[in-house]
Amino acid sequence: MKTINPTFSERLNDAADAVLRTCRAALKRVERMPWPTLLALCIMLALLVAILPLAFTLFVCFMLVKVIVGAFGVKHLPRTPQE
Q1: Contact between residue 33 and residue 41 where contact means Cβ atoms under 8 Å apart
Q2: Is the pTM of this model over 0.90?
């Protein structure tokens, strides 16, 4: 009797094959790129790798400061009614 559900190792092999096919296709595409395009791609990738973690870290730091300041219950000045 044949099982319809693949085993874990079969699924793992399928996933590995899919990743390898994707990597091979990406490498073929990069090999066909002209030098200026490849240079621009490398610069954009370097900026993405350098700036994105910095922006995320700054966002987390400012949010932590906001939560800490809010935890101490900073009193705000009452607003005067504007006429």
Answers
A1: yes
A2: no
CA dihedral 6→12→15→20, nearest 10 degrees, is: -140
Tell me how far apart the terminal alpha carbons of the chain are, to the nearest angstrom.
85
Query: How far is residue 11's CA from residue 7's CA, in Å, rounded to a whole number?
Result: 6
- The 10s digit of each residue's pLDDT in 33-53 is 999 999 999 999 999 999 999
The CA distance from 26 to 19, in Å, is 11
Buried b (16+ CB within 10 A) or exposed e, 41-79: eeeeeeeeeeeeeeeeeeeeeeeeeeeeeeeeeeeeeee
